[in-house]
Write a structure and sequence with these properties.
By secondary structure, this protein is of the alpha/beta class. The protein has one domain: Rossmann fold (3-Layer(aba) Sandwich). The chain is 26% helix and 30% strand. The protein is built from seven helices and eleven strands. The chain has helices spanning 30-40, 62-70, 87-91, 95-98, 105-113, 163-172, 186-195; strands at residues 4-7, 13-17, 22-23, 50-56, 74-80, 119-123, 126-131, 144-149, 173-181, 197-203, 210-216. The protein has an eight-stranded mixed sheet with strand order 6-7-5-4-8-9-11-10, sandwiched between helices. A three-stranded antiparallel sheet has the order 1-2-3, with no helix packed on it. β10 and β11 (210-216) form a beta hairpin. α1 crosses α2 (62-70). The longest helix is centred in the N-terminal third of the chain and has 11 residues, at 30-40. The radius of gyration is 16 Å and the shape is globular. The N and C termini lie far apart (45 Å).
Length: 219
């Protein structure tokens, strides 16, 4: 499938798939979306001193890198991606300059260069495991405080937004764990509720009216 580099509204880059008319990040701003959906609505809602995060759709590594930049505590990060981006595509991402994070460029490079299927200590407070895995093969149980659900949209990959997938997400979270996603589709919300999540609609990132946050409450 053809892939193109696209500059989004906040100046940051993304990868565009013309055949699907879909991209890895919002056309209204890759970085703006990442901060609003995953940092403000997700990471900053978890109050513990150590946070275990599962990212569904590791993609360009943007959410991972921004989490590293913003986390002032221990982070255990697992990124799942069935089709990793290429080194050439990574080199074309302009996140470091847009974030004014030149001093941390070595970390962004390390995030992409470390091997898959192994846990790596990126810094003293940040470890990373990248899994080349289909989402339906995830089998973690009560392992994560937070899930970044950043799969391609339900319009192009509806099979990733089903009761079966969200059952795996529910199982993977600890009690009171949080899942955040840019999606606000009614079918997605209902699938989350069917598996037991308590779901709330929140104001969305630029270009989207709403997003969803789901919490695992079983008590």
């Amino acid at each position: 499938m053809k892939r193109e580099i696209l500059i989004t509204s906040d100046g940051s880059s993304t990868i565009h798939l013309p055949e699907w008319n879909e991209q890895y990040h919002s056309k209204n701003g890759s970085i703006n979306e990442s901060y609003h959906v995953f940092i403000e609505s997700g990471l900053r809602q978890v109050k513990s001193n150590e946070v275990s995060i599962l990212e569904i759709g590791f993609g360009t590594g943007l959410n991972c890198f921004i989490t590293y930049l913003e986390a002032k505590r221990a982070i255990h990060y697992v990124g799942v991606e069935a089709y990793p981006v290429t080194p050439k595509e990574v080199d074309k991402m302009n996140f470091i300059s847009i974030l004014k994070a030149e001093n941390e460029g070595v970390i962004f490079k390390k995030i992409h260069e470390v091997s898959w299927e192994e846990k790596h200590q990126i810094t003293n407070n940040f470890n990373l495991e990248k899994r080349k895995q289909f989402f339906e093969d995830i089998e973690d149980e009560a392992a994560f405080d937070l899930i970044y659900f950043d799969a391609f949209g339900a319009r192009v990959q509806p099979q990733l937004w089903t009761v079966a997938i969200f059952t795996k997400m529910f199982t993977a979270l600890k009690e009171n764990g949080i899942l955040v996603t840019y999606s606000a589709k009614g079918s997605v919300r209902r699938a989350m509720q069917e598996v037991g999540f308590t779901v709330e609609r929140l104001p969305g990132p630029p270009g989207k009216r709403e997003m969803l946050r789901a919490i695992k409450i079983t008590g």
